[in-house]
């Protein structure tokens, strides 16, 4: 069963930001999809046994701070 978690990423605001986050988060083990909502400044990550700390670290590696929404 896939689980989804949403993260608040207050500084995300452009297509470039979105692409950087998707690229980094997609590398986290278990991630099957990543969606960025630029209007609401949210990142939704779905997959199996995804480590939330790993996702936050991946978003940080892309240059942004994140917390679970």
Rounded to an integer in angstroms, the radius of gyration calculated over CA atoms is: 10 Å
The helix count comes to 2
Helix-strand string: EHEEHE
The CATH class name reads: Alpha Beta
Q: What's the CATH topology label?
A: Alpha-Beta Plaits
How would you characterize the overall build of this protein?
The structure is a single chain. The protein is an alpha+beta fold and 69 residues long. Helices cover 30% and strands 30% of the residues. It has a single domain (3-68), classed as Alpha-Beta Plaits (2-Layer Sandwich), CATH 3.30.70.100. The protein has helices spanning 15-25, 52-61, and strands spanning 3-8, 31-37, 42-47, 67-68. A hairpin with a 4-residue loop joins strand 2 (31-37) and strand 3 (42-47). The mean pLDDT is 94.
Overview in brief:
By secondary structure, the protein is an alpha+beta fold.
Task: Summarize the topology.
Layout: E1 3-8, H1 15-25, E2 31-37, E3 42-47, H2 52-61, E4 67-68
Spell out the key features of this protein.
single chain, 69 residues, alpha+beta, Alpha-Beta Plaits, four-stranded antiparallel beta sheet, 2 helices, globular
């Amino acid at each position: 069963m896939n689980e989804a978690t949403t993260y608040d990423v207050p500084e995300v605001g452009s297509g470039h930001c979105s692409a950087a986050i998707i690229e980094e988060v997609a590398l986290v083990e278990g991630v099957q999809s990543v969606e960025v909502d630029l209007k609401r400044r949210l990142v939704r990550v779905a997959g199996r046994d995804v480590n939330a700390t790993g996702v936050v670290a991946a978003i940080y590696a892309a240059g942004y701070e994140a917390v679970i929404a």
